[in-house]
Each structure stands twice: as structure tokens, then as C-alpha cells.
TrEMBL record:
The DUF397 domain, residue ranges: 4-57
Top-level taxon of the source organism: Bacteria
Protein's name in the database: DUF397 domain-containing protein
One Pfam match: DUF397
InterPro entries given in the database record: DUF397
Amino acid sequence: MPTATWQKSSYCGEGESCVHVAGGDAGTIHLTESSDPSGAILGATPVAFRTLLHTLKKEHRRG
């Protein structure tokens, strides 16, 4: 993957356990873990990423 501009999750506190997100080619959204940003990179379509965020927010509200 070409050099990406990673953005750290706003829910991340201090430390190495954060999710980073970057836009990619052809509208793909990339996600990776901050402890190894060049390691495992997950690619998702905007629709799939939106669905993931919606599901996570829904689960968070259930608590």
C-alpha cells in the first residue's frame, strides 16, 4: 500500500492499543492497529466501514 495518512481513533486514550484509519485508492478505507501500523491492514468499502461503525456504536449503547 502506498504511504497512507493514518488518523487515530478519537476513542483512543494513551498507549499502543488504538485503531488507525486511512483512506485508500478506489474509495477503500484501511484500518490498522497502532502498535504495528505496517502489519495487518484491513481494507473495507465505505458501506462496510459505515456498517461496522453503526454496529459498534449500537453495541456500546447496550453496554
